[in-house]
Structures are given as structure tokens and as C-alpha cells.
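Anyone opening a protein record will find just a pair of labelled lines. The record below illustrates this layout.
***
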Amino acid sequence: MKVLLGTRNPHKLAELKRVLGEISGIEWVDFHSVPFPEVAETGETLEENAKLKALAIARATGLPTLAEDTGLEVFALGGAPGVRSARFAGEQKDYQANNEKLLRLLEGVVDRRARFRAVAALALPDGRLWSTEGVLEGEIAHVARGEGGFGYDPLFIPIGERRTLAEMTPEEKDAISHRRRALERMRPLLSSLAQGELQKPA
């Protein structure tokens, strides 16, 4: 069964494919082979955005679609940037500008606790929807470090680590990431979908 990965972000797409790997009965397809429309992220929560994207793309393409939305929640900023993480410094979704704005806002701030939250959503063209969540706790570094990853990875230090996510190998990041935790919880649903045993959400 074909399942469409509902993102046009090449970094996120690569991570989704690495983390999901092979699931028996599932063939991953993406925007390179199945074009789909850009979906405006108008939700007020990560879950709303993930579901909105998954459902819109599933209905547009006729394929089961897995979409995901991630936000960085900084305690000292009242949970910001949160659902606005990608557009924190403007609609252009500029990673460097977002990181620079975050560091400016945290100048002199002692409490640098933060968490990454990821929500994965699976939608079928008939409107059925499921979602799962993963969280990674950590803190914000004082300067950007590392060349790997994307987004806020150069600033985020997971609990128990001295390195930022951007200083880790892709495999090290994948092993602990919020996205992996959300997708691992989605895996049984995808397996059930492949076997034709997926029940309606409770």
C-alpha cells in the first residue's frame, strides 16, 4: 500500500524516511512522484496543523498521508515559539533568522529549559484521522553549535547531553528525537493500515 509522506521540506523528508525505515506492506511515496498542494498551517496547535495537512493532502491525492508538525517550546518564553516555530522570525521560514531571534530573546536569561514537541498525523481520503506525539526535553545553548540537522538543532541540547542536536550524527539524533518518538507510536497504526485492519479512531 502506498502512503504519502506529506512534506516538501527536504530535511524533514529525509529524517522521516530514515526513522520510519521499512514497514511490511507499506511503500513510501513523496512529493517527487506524487505532487500535492501547499497547505496553509492555520491551526492553533501542532496537532491541528498536522491533522490539517494530512487530511488536505490525502483528499487531494487519494492516498493515505502521513504528515507531521513540530514546535520548540521555551519555558522562559511562555512556550513560544511553539506552533509558530518555523515562522518565528517571519514568513520566509529562515532557520538562521529564527535562531538569532531566539538567542536575542534569551540574552541574560538563566532558565533555558525547552522541549521539542512533534505530532504525527495519519489521514485517509475518507476523512479518518489518527495522531501521535513525541517530546524531547532539553535546554537552549548560549550560541549555535554544529553543522548537522536543521531548524533549531544548533541551539538545542537534550537532557543528559553536552552536545546540541546539530553536533550529533543523524543516527544519534534519530535515536532520541521527538520526531522518532511520535513516529514510533504511529508505527502500529501504519502496520494495521497495511494489513487492512485499521479501525476508526475512538
User: Anything to note?
Assistant: The mean pLDDT is 94. Strands lie at 2-5, 27-29, 65-74, 81-82, 113-123, 129-140, 156-158. The longest strand covers residues 129-140. The chain has five helices and seven strands.
